[in-house]
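User: Let's play a game. I give you a shape written as tokens, and you guess the letters that built it. Ready? Here's round one.
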């Protein structure tokens, strides 16, 4: 993970989860576990994350570029640059790029720890086919993440999203 005090633009480890890149900016090791900061790079019309629920973390997203669709509970909106989106723990949420150009989102995760999920998931989901369900389930359990895989087709269809 990242362990620098100052990062120049474009620095920081970058991993890809299909249509979403995750750049590690500040990790929990640097903050004593209080928070982490990542940058999401979301390809046009890509589903960044299906409906999922965190047991442990709150996420606060700041849209820097593009149009980002979000579902938090039953609320669905499309927001643009300058918007702040709070995704509290215990509330199912999803997000995607609702536009035709790439989107960039800064995401504060508190407390830290969940940033490790992105690196592990990038490795697990690399390749052409679906990952081993047992390994995926173990990863979700490790991070106390409840993933609603069945929401993917609905989100893709309702929001005109394309596969990675």
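Assistant: Ready! My guess for every position:
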């Amino acid at each position: 993970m990242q362990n620098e005090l100052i990062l120049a633009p474009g620095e920081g480890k970058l991993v890809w989860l299909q249509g979403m890149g995750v750049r590690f900016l500040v990790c929990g090791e640097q903050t004593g576990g209080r928070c982490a900061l990542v940058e999401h790079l979301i390809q046009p019309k890509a589903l960044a994350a299906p409906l999922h629920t965190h047991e442990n973390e709150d996420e606060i997203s700041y849209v820097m570029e593009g149009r980002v669709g979000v579902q938090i509970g039953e609320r669905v909106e499309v927001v643009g640059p300058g918007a702040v989106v709070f995704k509290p723990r215990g509330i199912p949420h999803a997000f995607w790029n609702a536009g035709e150009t790439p989107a960039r989102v800064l995401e504060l995760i508190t407390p830290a720890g969940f940033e490790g999920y992105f690196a592990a998931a990038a490795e697990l989901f690399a390749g052409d086919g679906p990952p081993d369900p047992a390994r995926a389930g173990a990863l979700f359990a490790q991070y106390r993440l409840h993933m609603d895989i069945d929401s993917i087709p609905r989100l893709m269809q309702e929001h005109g999203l394309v596969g990675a």
